[in-house]
Protein: Nucleotidyltransferase family protein
Amino acid sequence: MAMSRTHHSRSSSGILPPQETAQTVPELSSIASFRHFYLHILEALRRSGSRFLIGGSYALAAYTEIARTTKDIDLFVTPEEFGGIMAALSQAGYETERTFPHWLGKVRLGEFFVDVIFSSGNGLCDVDEDWFIHASHWKLDEHVVELVPPEEMIWTKAFVMERERYDGTDIIHLIHACWKQIDWQRLIRRFGTYWEVLFSHLQLFAFVYPEERHKVPQWVWQTLMKRLEQRLMTPPSSIEKRLCRGPLISWNQFMVPIQSWGYKDARLMPLGNLNQKHIEEFTETMHHETLLNSQWWVKS
Structure:
């Protein structure tokens, strides 16, 4: 299925009128109760006039044709609209919680849940109007929905390098499938001063698909290699002292350098966008979820 990235005028919600035409997102779950759950979620949001974008496994399947069985949906919303959307879903009868105050909430019905996301765990990737302006439109069952643009999917996934989860392979698949549609200038701008993270993923793409490296434009390689040369020539005196950017890509694999070796956490203001409370709450919750997952693994 070739991806078509047709932009329509934005609607007041994440669901477009039925007369709009769009390609179909591959069906990912055969669990009937889950399909009923997410369709009711979409209908509740449509009735409330809420704007949202669908990301995660559904968007990845639409763009790359790589389908995964899933029992959740990722909805992306702006920080300003997050509260209203959670309220609308609460009024529709769902259990809601602001799981992480700086980036994510959950909507639950029994074992099924929806993640409502307005930023990223490291605090770098806020959802803004550009996400909606550049969204693509696809059909999900009877609904026509807006998907997170490939550029923003790459941007947010690029910082997920946990021991138990690594999203770099998704980025490789997105580049392989969407290279003609990617706005490379906009993608580079998204990464800003963290362009080295993007560069690392592009090099892995070229490693995985040697004959496909042309899918990354030559000017992109040249631009980033020039930046790397300049970075390597930066005098040590102008570099932030005792800085560790590791927590931007993994919340738990760089705790020792931060807690015991005296390095500064790049997530923490004024270097990053999070305060100490955000980091402590995030770390505590993630530790708890990791423990639950490990116990499930042992029991299985």
User: Anything to note?
Assistant: The longest helix spans residues 276-299. Residues 1-12, 15-20, 295-300 have pLDDT under 50 and may be disordered. The chain has three domains: 11-148, 149-233, 238-288. Residues 11-148 form a domain with the Beta Polymerase; domain 2 fold (CATH 3.30.460.40).
